[in-house]
Sequence to fold (816 residues):
Amino acid sequence: MTTNDFSTARPTPRHDLESSSAATVSAGPGPGPAPADLLRRLRARGAGDPVTHVERVPARAGVPAPWPSWAPAELRAAFARRGVVAPWQHQARAATLAYEGEHVVVATGTASGKSLAYQLPALATLLADPRATVLYLAPTKALAADQLRAVSALELEGVRPACYDGDTPRAEREWIRRHSRFVLTNPDMLHHGILPGHAQWSGFLRRLAYVVIDECHTYRGVFGSHVAHVLRRLRRQCARFGATPVFVLASATSGDPATAAGRLTGLPVTAVTEDASPRGGVTFALWEPPLLPPDSGGAPPQASGDGSSPAAPPQASGEHDDLRQVRRSALRETADLLADTVAEGVRTLAFVRSRKGAEVVAANARRSLDDAVPGLGGRVAAYRGGYLREERRELERALLHGDLLGLASTNALELGVDLVGLDAVLICGYPGTRASLWQQAGRAGRSGQEALAVLVARDDPLDTYLVHHPEAIFGAPVEATVLDPANRYVLAPQLACAAFEAPLTPADLALFGDGAKEAVDELVTAGALRQRPTGWYWRHRERPEVDLRGEGGAPVCVVESATGRLLGTVDGSSSHFLLHPGAVYLHQGVSYVVDDLDLADGCALVHVEEPDWSTHARDVTDLSVVSVRSYVDAGPVGMFLGEVDVTSQVVSYQRRRIATGEVIDTRPLDLPTRELRTVAVWFTLSPQSLALAGVQPADVPGALHAAEHAAIGLLPLMATCDRWDIGGLSTAVHPDTEAPTVFVYDGHPGGAGFAERAYGTASAWLRATRDAIAECGCETGCPSCVQSPKCGNGNNPLSKPDAIQVLDVVLANLPD
Ligand SMILES: [Zn+2]
Ligand SMILES: [Zn+2]
Fold:
């Protein structure tokens, strides 16, 4: 899948320094209503009070620091010309650590000026040593292009910054390799281009002083595990040329960033986490849309997959995970809030999970504004990936200046870093992690002025839990970024790439970590490597084909039938979910419908069509235990971590109306089964302990099933995943455990670290699961607690009260 690229000119010059400073304040219009007053009017609108909690996030004064003594006058002057008078304390501290040769990660909030923390030591070194070089990595080409403009604008002689990515013309590439001393690229280009071509890069790599890894929290799960090995391959090539670069990483606030950065780079990393940049105060409201009258809902639940689908992304799931429209849709609620804030003259950014959802929110808000005051709707727009970068920059500029008052957008990475200092931010549905929640909320609040942030809950267990447990948002540290470089489905192909670049030696195996020797032996057995006295050699002429963003299986090409144009590729493992006949497939904001999926040719034919429904594939699942890695024997309860084989088949899909979530129909599919070897966490209970807790034998399946659904829904509280990354299976007696069992597994070949994290935090995870079920106001289970949007058994059987009993038995026996 492609990433967005909006690389060149932008209207405001100071994006690089990100400081929540006068630049955006002076650009905007005058102050709107105070957030507390605004919130009072918003919540007084309907019948009951939808606000479950209001948190006041206080303003913070910035703590400036003097320029480090080592920073050359020329560089200070260059920053001063760009409006930076002095660094904030965290910038100065991280910069000095890096300058002194320590690997460092700076993990602070949105717009806290992380880029200065790496620009300062990197550029100081380039000025002091005319031969030194710097490699900068960003997860998207767009961010690299932003950073290129920032560094270029400093106009430092001899640095010659340049982007080197898939779009770089061939003619320029050689010049960049020879002459640029600040090369900006992405992990994919490092993997596909720079490392395999290391001979051409030897001069650059030999003199490499710094490796900058921006937005490093985006390297999580399987993709993060791949990137971890690409960085080890980079370190190996540098070492061959005698270079030992310092790594400087920038991260959104995340739990334990030093450990995550250490896993990513394989190096000891010091974290700088105290944010010393100034911030305006924010009034943060948690908002639960009201329950609808009983008969106004959509259709009843239909047959479905059981949460086992690997990596069906949010675009496929749409905004309507709910099976019954128990509460008013978060999209409609957000649209109304957007219309109300715009009517008050408040500059508002609404975050919506899908592009289609963002357009629905913008369209509804426009309509109600035009009904109120004809023409007012024109001050609301949607912002999506399909626009050209110039169009998007223009939308950002219009919003910052107040020409536009409301913008509905997808995720934060698509937005320019300039777009901060807004008066209100609406977040439609929990974005999956506290880290992203704070990133999105961080767009609100200018220095010296109060702003409003509202999280609108979707009808889903995690969202519902959070709006009723504000301490889980405001009192908890943000999640750890989870990745697992030891995943052998990642390790083996990465070792093949490394061997292609230069034969592997025993010393290299230590660099690649646990399991490297076994993986090399497997590659020898498979005929990919040959062992010689001097090491392991790649046996083929061609390079190994490894896709960093792939999830296993050959990718499937998406081709527009009418033109033969290749739109993109989808991972083999997701193709059954996303590209089945009849699927609505979104690409760069344009909607297509799949006519045919040819699995033999690895090709899906599509045509442009924008129906007013979304599609949701369902599967059925079988699971067997391969091995147990670790377990806790807790009397009648057992908790396990191990490898499992999951067999699944996509059997049908639902069509649901985008605007309401109403199920139109369910259509059968004829697709083959697929196998997944992955990592699972599971728990067992003795039948006696369940009987003692009052769970009747007939209710055991429903109890386990309900507990499984809620446990999957709550796991994102513990790890940076969403429920689409995870699958589950429950049974009153499983042949491999011979006991009532609930399995929760990673939906990625070889595992992604999520089940491992669940095992490590089992009691906290299951405690939150238990509380979420117990505290839900429904009687027999609803999408906010035990129903799952992708259940293979039509959410049947489910027993909400017995699920609480099951979890109580587990928690009573499991050590903390
Ligand atoms: Zn409920
Ligand atoms: Zn289910």
